Automatic annotation (TrEMBL):
Region entry Disordered, spans: 55-77
Alphabetical UniProt keywords: Nucleus
Matching SMART domains: GAL4
Entry protein name: Zn(2)-C6 fungal-type domain-containing protein
Protein's UniProt keywords contain Iron-sulfur: no
PROSITE patterns attached to this UniProt entry: ZN2_CY6_FUNGAL_1, ZN2_CY6_FUNGAL_2
Residue ranges of domain Zn(2)-C6 fungal-type in the record: 10-38
Annotated organism of origin: Baudoinia panamericana (strain UAMH 10762)
Length: 341
């Protein structure tokens, strides 16, 4: 799959006129103002992925023909890539829900894509990178089929698979490359799927874990793009009430949402400098209070999580696990709160 640019979210009339659309319902503001019939908005499937699997796969095939064939990797290599992924990316606080899912092609392909690419990056193995890309293309094809299915689009495996595509783009990151745009595209897609699933998914522990995982990417994208966090994400977060570590994460997440709002206001100039300074000062104080209330005198959360790590077969050095990603990701943005850029 090749990223072909951010798809327009506007209505049919605004897209045709290449005008900005406010996406209001039932008709956008521009169509109402011009007394035009609003053609409505494209559905989720159109917003998600533009499947160019055939052309990309053809190029990948041509590249592989120049060297040793890796079109049919051995089961041993696939097992190595799978185990590498679970050993290095799955902990009690990150992607643990994958262990409870059936690893059919729906999930196995993106997992193999990520695991193979991570190994390729570690070993500077270009043929393995090409193999990872083929897994990625196969994953895109499988996911696109699920997105067109009214029931499967709401399944846990579909949301997890879209999330894994974003992880693949992180691993594929190169300065000046297209991975950043592709990652943002996948985040938008996972957000659409998440919202389609509805708030009822939060009733189960697995649903809450998946929501928090996708939410982390949504907020990261909002912070780096200087855009607002979707309102449904904020509302669902406010409705959560479960285990203590979840409440700790959620309270910090809501602060990160406020940070994204401030950065958006700074970029757009939608508020006065005085109001911006006041909101920033309030948020900074709340962040300090969160830090004092949550972290002072508490046992090290990473040490706690280390006792809960997943029980998949371990073949890789356990010191390389990434523990407590939920807290680490919003927290690492805290130092930038007073200086939107």
């Amino acid at each position: 799959m090749v990223y072909t640019g951010k798809p327009s979210l506007g209505c049919e009339e605004c897209r045709r006129a290449k005008k900005k659309c406010d996406q209001a319902l039932p008709s956008c503001g521009r169509c109402v103002r011009l007394d035009k019939i609003c053609g409505g908005y494209r559905d989720l499937n159109e917003l998600m992925f533009r499947d160019q699997s055939s052309s990309v796969a053809r190029r990948a095939s041509q590249q592989s023909e120049a060297g040793p064939s890796t079109r049919h990797p051995s089961p041993k290599k696939e097992a190595t890539a799978r185990d590498f992924f679970f050993n290095h990316f799955v902990t009690a606080t990150h992607l643990s829900f994958l262990e409870k899912m059936s690893l059919d092609d729906h999930l196995l392909k993106p997992i193999l894509a990520c695991g193979t690419l991570a190994l390729a990056n570690r070993n500077s193995d270009q043929p393995a990178r090409e193999k990872a890309r083929r897994y990625y293309i196969e994953a895109i094809t499988t996911i696109n089929a699920a997105l067109r299915h009214v029931r499967r689009v709401r399944e846990d495996a579909t949301l997890a698979a879209v999330l894994l595509l974003g992880i693949f783009e992180w691993l594929n990151w190169e300065p000046g490359g297209s991975s950043q745009d592709s990652w943002r595209h996948h985040v938008q897609g996972s957000s659409q799927v998440l919202q389609m699933r509805g708030r009822n998914q939060l009733r189960s522990a697995q649903g809450r874990a998946m929501f928090r995982e996708v939410r982390s990417s949504i907020i990261h994208n909002a912070l780096t793009s200087e855009i607002e966090v979707p309102e449904y994400v904020i509302q669902w977060t406010q409705s959560l009430d479960d285990e203590p570590i979840g409440a700790t994460i959620d309270s910090l997440t809501l602060l990160a949402c406020r940070m994204a709002s401030i950065r958006t206001a700074f970029r757009t100039g939608s508020v006065t400098d005085e109001e911006l300074a006041e909101r920033t000062a309030e948020l900074e104080q709340d962040l300090l209070s969160w830090s004092e209330d949550t972290l002072s005198g508490k046992p090290n959360l990473s040490a706690q999580s280390q006792q809960q790590v997943t029980t998949w077969p371990r073949t890789i050095d356990p010191t390389e696990y990434h523990i407590n990603r939920y807290i680490a990701q919003p927290a690492r943005s805290v130092p930038s709160i007073t200086s939107p850029t």
